[in-house]
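@channel anyone free to eyeball this complex?
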Amino acid sequence: MKDYFRNKNFLSGFIFLSFIIFIIIWGIIKLPYEINTIDISNKLADISFKHLLGTDHLGRDILSRIMVGTLLSVEIGFYVVLFGFILGTPIGALAGYYSKYVDEIIKKIIDTLMSFPGVLIALMLIAVFGTSAKNIIIALTIMSIPRFARIARGGYYSYRNSPFVLATKARGASNFRIMVIHIFHHIYGELIVTASLTFATAVLSEAGLSYLGLGIQPPNPSLGKMVSEAQSYILQKPSYVIIPSIFIIILVLGFNLLGDGINKV
Amino acid sequence: MLYFIKKFINTFITILLVSIITFYIFNILPGDPAQVILGLDASQEQIAQLRETMDLDSPAVVRYINWIESLLKGELGVSYKYQKPVAPIIFDALVVTLQLSIYSLLLTLIIAIPFGLLLVSKRNKKSYIPLSIFSQIGMSIPTFCLGIFLIAIFTVNLGVLPSIGYVSFSTNPILNIKSLLLPSLSIAIGASSIVVRYLNTSVNQQLKMDYVRTAYSLGLSEKTVLYKQVLRNALIPVITIVGLIVTDILAGSIIIENVFSLPGIGKLITSSITSRDLPLIQALVLYLSLIVILVNFIIDILYRFIDPRIRIK
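replying in thread with the prediction:
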């Protein structure tokens, strides 16, 4: 663990994400204001002790909305990574371990899916099934499955004939046991790196979709949507645009740095 | 030659797969597709008529074959919203998006190559860390935030570049470049960070090779080793990610066209989703996919010409 904290990337990623977790927990314990209370007389208020990050164009407290929006982004990222891992890893593992024709077919599908812009797949699904948090998670999961599958395939492929696997086989371990316990032990590090980077991509994609109005629907706060609402007030109150942008950047940067750090260590 | 045939068959299969997916996804709409498209207050006759035009009563395989047949003839269906054939609408938008993509790709290379070289030459110095942080941040900023910040700086504060509107190249080349400069810059900053990162990893990998040690022991200077030998080998894998970058640029343009109100594919796709114009979305997705597949095909072929080792394998 000490090694990790000595790595500058890991450390800075850890600090960024700790800040995000702090904001989320603060929001869960007590939101400063109700997120949808409109107070027109107090619109676009400046940063003050009453409203720590000011208010938006409808007089809603920005900090409270950021807290809920950040939580939502993290939740979506979490589910995307979780389902991507659960579905992608076994697919890649089977392809890599058993190889042959199955591998050829799965490799082809992974390559095809990887070469597509994730946003395009997401847009297609949203066009068909409509906008909702659930559909965004489904769409982004489809994008994340090949990432996990590719890493797992590579790992299982390179270890399947290694001495320790053959030795375990000779001792009578089943293929299932070798795959789940022995080889997995060697590649979970790489999978964690993938999880971290996929988390960052998922947050970015969700923000992009919400910005386009195809993600989380108002009045629910989402960081991407907040940026698009704030866009027209950039002259009057630049901080309104900058604050949600900074939160997206911290979140994405945090996971990117964390993944990089783990990778290097 | 065998390689080309194999690659060609592979690409063909991919296109076939993509077309099947795009077709079926739009046919698994929950409930009656005609009902979904027309909305809840459509009359029974309207629904029946739409079912007729969409040929919903024949089996899916027949409809798929019909769809492919009309695609090959260049008929992509009629847009519900515009009540016009889809093909010319897409063509007009495609021209804008292609220009945006080309400018973005050029800018990406213009930014990434010098910056990447700078990073490589400073790899043992103190200034390396701020430079690498810079590229990390570039990768983490959403394109739309960058777009908005650039509008704030260049349009609102400096007043030098327009923030909305598109001028075609044939009307006025200078205004055309001006109108697409900010959007392409927003895309290029993110994309070039990825290239820089990749170049950096690639150079670091090459530096561990035996030939580098030999070159140093022969008494060659750091500069000669780095620029004459390492870089040449390090640039080869970087070319492969140009394919990846093109995908990124296309994804970025979908969002950035909405920030700058450019009448391209991205703007068209989002507006057709809002108006549930399914034939248009279907055709757009298929077109964009085809572009991505073709670019990857071309890069695979190019890669083979650049690196003779692959040819031998």
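from a first look: Chain B has a mean pLDDT of 80.
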